[in-house]
Write a structure and sequence with these properties.
15 helices
């Protein structure tokens, strides 16, 4: 899905940059300027995400592992908090609980996790260690040993957590689609089962013809942080099936919505798309967390907990939403609309009238629809979970974030859309999560039910993850 590259680059370089700006903040004291090591490692991980090939649920897991390693290392230097794997067994005596020791332990833990998750980008992680004043090859100090020991315990668990990381994340369940691939450039002629997902064949940004398989159909089997992700997923009601009035109604709604898109709605669809070479939806909310860290003048102690809770909630959101996707294997709008309206002249975005068998979403042709089933929306689930944690951590829903979408910056209608700059504003975290969800309907990627049920699932997942995270740092484990 298209991403506003300049927007993302600015957001990475400056946590509160104009492209993802919060309201103006008062100047910080000189000793408090610049992000702490937790934020620095989050920034490095998001750079790795953009340069890697992992899809959204895999990215969510990677962020969760790195921030759990960082948290567990930090917990050893707190008077009360316990680690997720080794409890309080690594706790250091009070005289050692300095910011410098915490930063060193966190950095060695985060470095070990980052290299394990993104080995091809080790040079970048080593460079960050050097910039922070550490030698990644020398873990002889007590803080370094503490960080490494904490992270190794986390990695030992996660290497056997059902993700099949050591097997390249390959499917372990034998999934096979019931529908043959649909060539996006050709009119649809038939589907074996209109209710079910079909792979898409299209030309990607590199100019290669590709048919991506279902991304990680086994992901619902990954061990969740809260332990509740699968149970919450199993409580989600079923989507509409072909032959029901609901199936036809939801397709008609997407058809009419995308045919009448305003510049603002198009900007929303593209801003939240988070496709290839982006930080993906889980990373997008990590960017927001960086902004909250700066807004609220967080220190290392606060961010060790914030990013730990946030990343694990989003990991669980990926597990839960992919469990639902696998359970129902539901059709995307691109196939449902083509099947229902083939041979009919229908309106579509851009003021055109087309044969229904050729309909495409408001997305770049090089990534017309993500390669996994529709129900439920991952964007909605990730965002619902993240917003829930951010609300609870900050003690309220106030956000104050915004993004400026430049005139003519669209990748779907370049040079044309939007006709003028568009400013997206989110007074609350809930506003941002809701807009992320509806953006997928504007883009023609998800149906209403997939969005709304995804939001509800995300909120439930976020609540469970928050409760679990808080138990760790209050010493209840």
């Amino acid at each position: 899905m298209p991403v506003l590259r300049s927007l993302r680059a600015t957001a990475l370089a400056l946590v509160c940059a104009a492209a993802l700006a919060l309201p103006a903040l008062p100047a910080l004291p000189a000793q408090a300027t610049g992000p702490n090591v937790v934020v620095r490692w989050n920034q490095a991980l998001l750079t790795a995400v953009r340069g890697g090939t992992l899809g959204p649920p895999l990215v969510a897991r990677a962020l969760a592992i790195a921030h759990t390693c960082a948290y567990d290392a930090w917990a050893a230097y707190d008077a009360v908090a316990v680690g997720t794997r080794l409890g309080g067994s690594l706790r250091r005596p009070a005289p050692e609980r300095t910011d410098a020791n915490k930063a060193e332990a966190v950095s060695f833990a985060a470095h070990l996790a980052a290299v394990d998750l993104y080995p091809a980008q080790r040079a970048t992680f080593d460079a960050l260690m050097a910039d922070l004043g550490y030698d990644p090859a020398d873990a002889s100090s007590v803080p370094a040993q503490t960080g490494v020991t904490a992270c190794r315990a986390v990695l030992d668990l996660r290497h056997t957590d059902g993700s099949n990381q050591l097997g390249g994340y390959a499917d372990t369940t034998g999934y096979a689609p019931v529908n043959a691939p649909m060539v996006v450039a050709d009119p649809l002629t038939s589907l074996n089962d209109p209710s079910r997902w079909a792979p898409l064949t299209f030309v990607n940004r590199a100019g290669a013809t590709v048919t991506p398989p279902f991304l990680a159909p086994h992901w619902g089997q990954v061990a969740s942080f809260s332990g509740a992700a699968r149970a919450l997923a199993d409580a989600v009601p079923a989507p509409y099936l072909y032959g029901s009035s609901g199936f036809r109604t939801q397709a008609a709604e997407i058809l009419s919505t995308t045919a009448a898109l305003t510049d603002r709605q198009k900007a929303i669809a593209e801003y939240w798309a988070d496709g290839p070479s982006s930080e993906t939806p889980p990373g997008h909310w990590s960017l927001f967390a960086q902004q909250i860290s700066a807004r609220d003048h967080h220190g290392l102690d606060q961010d060790a907990k914030l990013f730990f809770a946030l990343a694990n909630s989003v990991m669980d959101a990926g597990i839960a939403s992919w469990e639902v996707k696998r359970d129902h294997d539901s059709a995307r709008p691109i196939t449902a609309i083509r099947f229902l309206y083939k041979g009919q002249q229908i309106p579509t975005w851009g003021g055109r009238v087309i044969d229904g068998a050729t309909w495409v979403p408001f997305q770049a042709t090089t990534f017309p629809t993500p390669p996994f089933p529709e129900y439920v929306s991952g964007h909605s689930t990730f965002s619902g979970a993240a917003a829930e944690v951010l609300k609870r951590f900050t003690g309220g829903d106030a956000f104050g974030g915004q993004a400026v979408i430049s005139k003519g910056s669209s990748q779907v209608e370049p040079g044309v859309t939007p006709a003028q700059d568009v400013t997206l504003r989110w007074p609350t975290f809930s506003d941002a999560a809701d807009e992320a969800g509806i953006s997928r309907r504007y883009g023609g990627i998800h149906f209403r039910l997939g969005d709304l049920q995804g939001r509800a699932l995300g909120r439930a997942v976020g609540t469970a993850a928050w409760d679990r995270a808080k138990a760790y740092w209050t010493g209840r484990g």
